[in-house]
Specification:
heterotrimer; A mainly alpha; B alpha+beta; C mainly alpha; B: alpha+beta; Rossmann fold; OB fold (Dihydrolipoamide Acetyltransferase, E2P); 2 domains; six-stranded mixed sheet; four-stranded antiparallel sheet; 23 strands; 27% helix; elongated; C: mainly alpha; MetI-like fold; 13 helices; globular
Chain lengths: 294, 369, 265
């Protein structure tokens, strides 16, 4: 058992001060802006929840939110199964492991705007391998003109960028399964599918919860990569919440609505993450309460 | 159920073979052995002696580098595990966490395909039978992950028992994670099941008590080799190897280095009568005598010893004594006085002579002299 | 396992294709890129790299990125270590809420913080300094570091602490001499992820810098738009930003899997 000791607060204090500086103060600023309006630089008026009402009822916000939700849903549907499949097929020992780990982790360590640049170049119809090949094969592909093409490009880019995270997480879950489980499954005559369904998937659940959470949060916050590749276009087709927000705050300097939108945005992420987390760990909690404190 | 025959089976792991290539790179040295149908066997030996390798060869988890494996008269050397119809219980309980206890037990039956496929009613009946056998009826619909370690291990065992036609049930140190007081219970339950259903059981352990209480026949292994097979009584009476002598019995056999002189052995200058004449033998010659077969007498009537300690272990005492420079354990019954100037007498018929750790059989000795 | 080896192979090919294209482009002249389509350079040139490496703004961009990334890693770890220890060893008033609240910071969209950060650091006169970026990146790296380290620390038996205290070790001496070496792999993993997330982030880094502390990736964007799209130089610049990440992965490759195994990422 952990011992009760309030002096432990002193150990947490540095983190608290630092995060207070880099999170609480900025967040207070945002809250402050969200309830005021300004004319000129230094005059502020209390407007209450007006900005929130405006943002929540604006079509621009709704559209961006729907795009974000759709994008995150597609990303999760592709990256999670693909990541698991790759992890299952990865070698378990030998030189192949290092090769796989190093090559697969590579996209994760590339600055996000460079990821954007790589794909912008790769997908261009005139000079990009992908765009040029597709055009030569007779596809009418152009991500700067066509909404669907732009979406496909962004999704493939995100799959390229982040699936490895799911692979690495799943792989670490898989290698931590004791060999006796596989041996017992062979003794019991279990099929390949049964081994996956009843051994590997349950044992991977902990890391998969984390993979889903991370991929949801990060795909929902996505900014740099689409900004570089499509700039939110064509039209507003790929204008996600982040892009819209930065445009509003820095481009148009609409501080009030931008602040209100920030808070709503943040709350949505917290809420959805919490729901994911609760649902996916529910089983865990059931089992724990069944066992009691024995 | 089946009679299991090992025909010159040996195994070496791929990496060790390339590294050394020598004879001692075997995890399991060439071995022939017959496990009779319905026998309860224990496979006893220190960790790393090849017990688990041998077990996994029988169940097919490891393919041996050489040799043939027969179930009754069928060669199963190249059959995959799932077709050998073997049950195996591992050191740590293996359960399908997301299933209930009953579903866990039904799992091996549901995996059957083709002509072996069972109907739901059959499956349910067998699962219920297994639950009763193990005394787990009340847990049938609980999630397996919420159980205690010993219940989990019972379910691992149960997955073997549901298959009534199983060829053999193999146990790989199954009681490692079980509380000491439950070990005894579980072992009794195993014994009962064996008596009732007559499965061939092979039980791997490094604990002599477990082996001797469970098995009709004990197979002792050391460094990839079977050094003796026999009933617990035989292992106690006639150890074929000094390791068996020392490993089995508490305290183990006294092993004293000695010289041979016809029908006498000379230990530290004292002469002890042997049951037969031995020829002159080369190598490391030792005399083995169990502490139970040494009597303490007054000096003059036996070889003089110096008592260094006396441990009272309940129904008898263990006297630790020095014979010259060699240590001796002697079991003395309760109520028997320990002489002030003691000497020792060895019971002639219980002495064994070992050449390089292996017993020199009396008949061999007689023939060659 | 052999049968399904084509899945990872295919996946790696998919990962490598865009990078291959970038690499090839970086060895082509801009004229060749625009005029002909070829899978490898017809006229191999290193001119693009020479252009970049001889330009001091590129060079300093690298240094800038490295400085704030290292500063951030050091700050994050040094505050996260004691906090993670507290969370893994003690119960205290509000500990669970505090831990969850820390994690919520990892969920905050950087876009939300861009403007307030700019104002905050302006107020302190920290705009265009390395420390500003390093502090701002603590927003998401400190919670991450605490989380990873707490996982590693919880796997170290508490008895070790107790024995050390009984042996007369003071807390700071125990922490530095005994405990830190025990969780060295955990510190490595945490450092790796701090490095990674600070290195790849651009939005905040770009907003808080003007010239003196401008990160390499931001300089890349600027230069390219200014020079009227010299694709060869752009590709070479991209390749140069890939290299540090590749080096880091190569050196920590044997520890990554272990860090992930704790599920604390």
């Amino acid at each position: 058992m952990k011992s009760w000791n309030n002096k432990a607060w002193f150990l947490v204090l540095p983190v608290l001060l630092l995060v207070a500086f880099s999170a609480i103060i900025p967040l207070m600023t945002v809250v402050n802006y969200s309830v005021q309006d300004s004319f000129g630089s230094n005059e502020f008026y209390w407007v209450g929840l007006e900005w929130f009402q405006e943002v929540l009822s604006s079509e621009r916000f709704h559209n961006a939110l729907m795009r974000n939700l759709l994008f995150s849903a597609i990303i999760l549907l592709i990256e999670i199964p693909l990541g698991i499949a790759v992890a299952l097929a990865m070698p378990r020992r030998g030189w192949g492991v290092s090769v796989c780990l190093v090559l697969m982790a590579l996209p994760l360590l590339i600055p996000w705007n460079v990821v954007g640049t790589i794909w912008q170049v790769f997908a261009r119809v005139d000079i990009g391998l992908l765009g040029y090949s597709l055009t030569q094969l007779g596809f009418d592909y152009n991500y700067t003109q066509d909404t669907l093409d732009a979406w496909i490009t962004l999704i493939v880019m995100d799959v390229w960028h982040w699936t490895s995270l799911v692979v690495l997480l799943s792989y670490s879950g898989l290698v931590s399964i004791p060999p006796a489980y596989y041996q017992a499954a062979r003794i019991d005559g279990a099929s390949r599918w049964a081994v996956f369904r009843y051994i590997q998937l349950p044992k991977m659940r902990r890391v998969l919860v984390i993979a889903v959470l991370l991929r949801f949060m990060d795909s929902f916050m996505i900014y740099t990569e689409p900004f570089v590749v499509t700039g939110g276009g064509p039209g507003n087709a790929t204008t996600f919440l982040s892009i819209d927000l930065v445009q509003m705050a820095i481009g148009q300097f609409d501080l009030g609505p931008a602040a209100a939108m920030s808070l709503i945005y943040f709350l949505i992420i917290l809420l959805v993450s919490w729901v994911f987390y609760t649902v996916m760990t529910q089983q865990d909690a059931d089992a724990e309460s069944g066992r009691g404190h024995s | 159920m089946a009679r299991i025959v090992l025909n010159n089976i040996a195994h070496r792991y791929a990496s060790s073979a390339t590294a050394a290539g020598a004879a001692d790179s075997y995890a399991l040295k060439p071995l022939s052995h017959v496990w009779e149908d319905g026998g309860a066997y224990a496979l006893l030996g220190p960790s790393g002696c090849g017990k688990t390798t041998l077990l996994n060869i029988i169940s097919g988890l490891i393919t041996p580098s050489q040799g043939q494996l027969l179930f009754d008269d069928t060669d199963v050397s190249h059959l995959p595990t799932e077709q050998r119809n073997i049950a195996q219980v591992f050191q740590f309980p293996v359960l399908y966490d997301t299933m209930t206890v009953a579903e866990n037990l039904a799992f091996p039956l549901r995996n059957r395909r083709g002509s072996n496929k069972l109907g739901n009613a059959d499956i349910k009946k067998r699962v219920d039978d297994a639950l009763v056998m193990l005394g787990l009826e009340h847990l049938a619909h609980k999630k397996a992950r919420s159980l205690t370690a010993d219940d989990k291990q019972k379910i691992s065992l149960g997955r073997g028992l549901v298959r009534t036609d199983v060829n053999a049930i193999l146990f790989d140190e199954p009681l490692t994670v079980i509380d000491p007081h439950l070990k005894w219970q579980l072992r009794t339950r195993l014994k009962q099941i064996h008596r009732e259903f007559g499965h061939t059981m092979i039980y791997v352990t490094h604990d002599q008590t477990e082996a001797l209480t469970f098995a009709d026949k004990v197979v002792v292994m050391l460094a990839g080799e079977v050094i003796q097979t026999g009933t617990p009584e035989e292992l106690f009476r006639h150890p074929q190897h000094t390791f068996v002598g020392k490993f089995i019995g508490s305290p183990g056999m006294n092993i004293l280095s000695c010289e041979l002189a016809g029908d006498e052995a000379i230990v530290e200058g004292c002469r002890f009568a042997l049951p037969t004449r031995y020829p002159a033998l080369s190598g490391n010659i030792e005399l083995g005598i169990r502490p139970e077969f040494i009597r303490l007498v007054d000096t003059g009537k036996g070889a003089p010893v110096i008592v260094t300690a006396i441990d009272d272990v309940g129904h008898h005492r263990i006297v630790r004594a020095l014979l010259g420079r060699q240590l001796l354990d002697i079991v003395v019954a309760e109520g028997v006085a320990i002489p002030a100037n003691p000497g020792v007498v060895f019971e002639t018929g219980s002495i064994g002579i070992y050449q390089n750790a292996r017993l020199v059989s009396a008949s061999f000795a007689e023939k060659t002299t | 396992m052999i049968r399904r080896a084509w899945i990872p192979v295919l996946y790696i090919v998919f990962l490598m294709l865009p990078l291959y294209w970038l690499l090839m482009m970086s060895f082509k002249t801009n004229q060749e890129i625009l005029s002909t389509f070829s899978l490898w350079p017809r006229e191999f040139t290193l001119q693009n790299y020479i252009t970049i490496l001889s330009d001091s703004s590129w060079y300093s961009g690298y240094i800038n990125s490295m400085i704030y990334v290292v500063m951030n890693t050091v700050i994050s770890l040094s505050v996260a270590l004691p906090a993670a220890y507290a969370f893994s060893r003690y119960r205290f008033l509000g500990d669970k809420h505090l831990f969850f609240w820390l994690l919520t910071n990892r969920m905050a969209p950087p876009a939300v913080f861009v403007l307030p950060f700019f104002q905050l650091y302006s107020a302190f006169g920290l705009i265009d300094t390395h420390i500003a970026v390093a502090l701002a990146h603590c927003l998401f790296n400190v919670p991450l570091a605490v989380w990873i380290l707490e996982g590693f620390m919880s796997s170290v038996p508490r008895e070790i602490d107790e024995t050390a205290y009984i042996d007369g070790y003071s807390f700071p001496r125990f922490f530095t001499k005994i405990f830190t070496p025990l969780i060295a792999p955990g510190i490595g993993v945490a450092a790796f992820f701090c490095f990674m997330f600070s290195w790849v982030e651009l939005l905040i880094a770009r907003t808080l810098t003007v010239t003196d502390a401008k990160p390499i990736s931001a300089i890349m964007t600027r230069t390219v738009s200014a020079s009227g799209l010299d694709w060869g130089v752009l590709a070479a610049a991209g390749m140069l930003t890939v290299i540090p990440g590749a080096l880091v992965i190569y050196f920590v490759r044997n520890h990554i899997a272990k860090g992930f195994a704790l599920g604390r990422v």
